[in-house]
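Researcher: We're teaching a course module on how sequence relates to structure. For the next exercise, students receive a sequence and then see the predicted structure as tokens, so they can try to spot secondary structure elements on their own. Here is the exercise chain.
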Amino acid sequence: MRRCSAVVLTAVLVLAAFPSAAAAAAWSPDRGFLVWTRQSESSAAVVRADRPGGQVTRLSRPPAGAADLTPQVSPDGSQVVFERDLPDGSTRLVVVRADGRGSERVVDTGCVDPCAVDVLPAWTPDGRHLTFSRVVGPFVDGNAASAVLYTADLDGRHVRRLSQPGIDGAFEDCRARYSPTGSFLVFVRVDNATGTTAVFRMGDDGRDVRQLTPWALSADHPEISPNRMGGTAGLIVFETHGGAHTEPIQDIATVPASCRPGRDCE
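Model: And here is the predicted structure for the students to work with:
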């Protein structure tokens, strides 16, 4: 059973078990470079390469025992945000320049008790705000009291809930990705009763929420095509586990963002 509130712990355990492992890469379509997490002997840092097999540049400097995970490139390609998991179990949202210069910037979103962690950051289309999942305790049978989507500016201020009301404890929302126009976003929703996942979409105001994939597919890691025109415009690619959470190999599938409930769109 997978949870938005537990997905980061899983990533840390995978990196620890396989020292040469690298986490999933994020692509900057306009600038043409990749960022990803690379494991070393004592930590896991965010790195960059301008082409496959090209020179790798280190972007983050985690302390010993820390892991910098889930890097995402800003819309203009100038910055990268990632989640830093520290040995004491706490997390930080960190922004660095995409060219590797300058110092790291910790975004303090004001997560204090009963807030446990803010995780899985990404960008809004204007490049001036972040999305993230805020995990709030207490925890009962592995379920957080709340794990839903929020936004904040790069100073950590103006924190605003993005997920619809009334889902806390029953569902968890994470991995928000905006469309190129910024008019809607897609995200992963976890059904806490079954542990299954599905891709959903909603408007940029948090309304018009609708399910795009059936729960049986256990869809995860959605990404929206950056194209505004052409055959792939509005197309979402995602992982599908088909309900087999223990299998090491996943499939890749697509669904149009325009899919309506009750239609077989996959």
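Model: If you want an answer key for the exercise: The chain has a mean pLDDT of 88. The radius of gyration is 17 Å.
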